[in-house]
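Cross-posted from the bioinformatics board.
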Amino acid sequence: MNKNIIVGQSGGPTSAINSSLAGVIDMGIKSGAEHVYGMVKGISGLLNEEYVDLGTIINDDEKRELLKRTPSSFLKSCRHRLPDDITGSDEYRKIFEILEKLDVGYFFYIGGNDSMDTILKLSKYAESISSDIKFIGVPKTIDNDLTITDHTPGYGSAAKYIATAMKEIIPDATVYGTSYVTVVEIMGRDAGWLTAASALAKSEDCEGVDLIYLPEFVFDMDEFVEKVRKLQEKKKSLVIAVSEGIKLADGRYVCEFNPDDSSLDAFGHRSLTGTSRFLAHTLNRELKTKSRYIELSTLQRCASHIASLTDINEAYEAGCSAVKAAYNGETGKVVVFERVSAKPYECSTGLADVADIANKERYVPKEWYDHDKCQMMKEYIDYARPLIEGELMPVYKNGVPRHIKL
Amino acid sequence: MNKNIIVGQSGGPTSAINSSLAGVIDMGIKSGAEHVYGMVKGISGLLNEEYVDLGTIINDDEKRELLKRTPSSFLKSCRHRLPDDITGSDEYRKIFEILEKLDVGYFFYIGGNDSMDTILKLSKYAESISSDIKFIGVPKTIDNDLTITDHTPGYGSAAKYIATAMKEIIPDATVYGTSYVTVVEIMGRDAGWLTAASALAKSEDCEGVDLIYLPEFVFDMDEFVEKVRKLQEKKKSLVIAVSEGIKLADGRYVCEFNPDDSSLDAFGHRSLTGTSRFLAHTLNRELKTKSRYIELSTLQRCASHIASLTDINEAYEAGCSAVKAAYNGETGKVVVFERVSAKPYECSTGLADVADIANKERYVPKEWYDHDKCQMMKEYIDYARPLIEGELMPVYKNGVPRHIKL
């Protein structure tokens, strides 16, 4: 009898994470798995034996199509990190007991680089106890900051949302033609991939954003104010895109300068929100220009109504490829994308050792950014444009997009 | 020879304002106007003789369709208030000189209640000098706060965006199932129509927002904290919708309590941003719950990629009706909507005296709000649902929606 499959989702939500789940379910059933189990709330749910039989839930084409269009993680999520000492912890023993009980032969985890750490540890533990269970990671992160892979599922949809939002914000923010600076804050603590996507708004019908600031480069406040002052000599209304994670030369985040100390919550955790607010206030004070800040906030990761079809299809393929790899006997691997051809864009899936991906980050190449003009270079545009192409039309009901709920 | 037409746009942008413009252009040309002029930057542009010949710009179906899909004001905007003393000011004399020079017989102004003030004053001045020029207002405002009309063009699209965004934010914000409150801030200083639209997210696949706070009702901070505490006993992750304009019993805006005083800019102008931020921090401090704020900001008025087809079509009809009314000899009027039938929804256009609309506001009826549960009643849902129905699909190019630019 064929072994069963189990799949979980972990880390922050994206618009594409459920498309990868659909890929795992479809290819799992196609490959002959009797049950495709879904752990609810990732690995921490599994530890409490919280799981569902996905084959009985996603059991027709309509539900499958809705699943692809559903934002956030259908199976819920967690931020649980397995113990570093794989031999001395009960958690591993318990997980494998549950997996044996469910007769699971193939384990898939859809998540970012923290989640790939789970795959790394579980596959190591499996090796240590000579278990046959295969562990494969399916990457997802809007941040696009995983190494080895050309890009990550989830990035294309977030980038499409950001480019579209900027294309709508720019005519809105410049409609009066008066002295007015709009600072738009975009996610990405250390890597500027999402902020860079604001450059994709530029087109024959849109002048584009006036300045772009990535977290990969030291931010200088005086230089910034001076750049805005000079630009305003020619053009009164400006739109500026900044990463939430921009830092001064001394390492302090710009958002830390807000007097309300909103960056620290009651638990002492630092949130990076407030960068655009601080910059807008600074420009208002220093240049006596009107200013406004806009934080794209979580909308950039959950706006599935404007998902990129390329992204959704690739995320689905990543799910399928993970299943194929596991059935081919692979374990301790992560699905990666390889750009086979740039023009026309063509992408294929491959595998990387999870140890080469987990807990590592990839940044925007320095040479893709024009530091003087604060704009993205053609290399970035050529890289990112194909990833936002195509639309997966929502299924509307009563005026709003339909989703599927566990 | 037929007289010419001139049309302008004024006040804050919406997703539907350009559809009304398309209606004026189409019906103007159909009615035999040789020129349909567009004032650039509204009445203040006209005073500088800034205008374009719209018939030569919007000259094919493709451009007309793009115009309907273009956010913000195609003709740019202004916030110019004509002098209250219509006899003692040179501005009126100058405007009429320019109108005579352009052989204008019909003047249309698309805008909110401030802009209707312009129609009121110009029609009064015309009467005082026995001018034959007809002045008709075409309403637009996402705020839905005009009197007499059933609703305003622009509201349906903004409401659709808000409902869709909430439907995406809710699964995102509750994905971990941990103690987490997300406070979403929605526009509307005095009228809660937009915040109410968050209630439209609720459906079989979405539990909806947990609490809704409108500016029509006094906000009590202790009561709010207590309500959240009680709700969290049953459900850890909550999503709350608040209007930017909620006020305490003593009349102070909630956003004024932010320590960084961000509500006052260098010019001393008050912006209402910061309400959700203050509430999220308060909950974090008082209840030791994690919290996040999301400001929908200007996206709610410019997200034309998810415009309501009902809204876009009605906005177009409002433009057409304005032209028909002027050709019928009407002046000093505003186009209004009348709901002919609730189920099935049917709406027709009519005319109201501009004096009855200009400078007045309409609020959410108190009986449409359940003050105890902080939820909208069925009456509101039945009223608003038809307004967000239908989709006007964007024309995509290179992965982003195409617009048309002056």
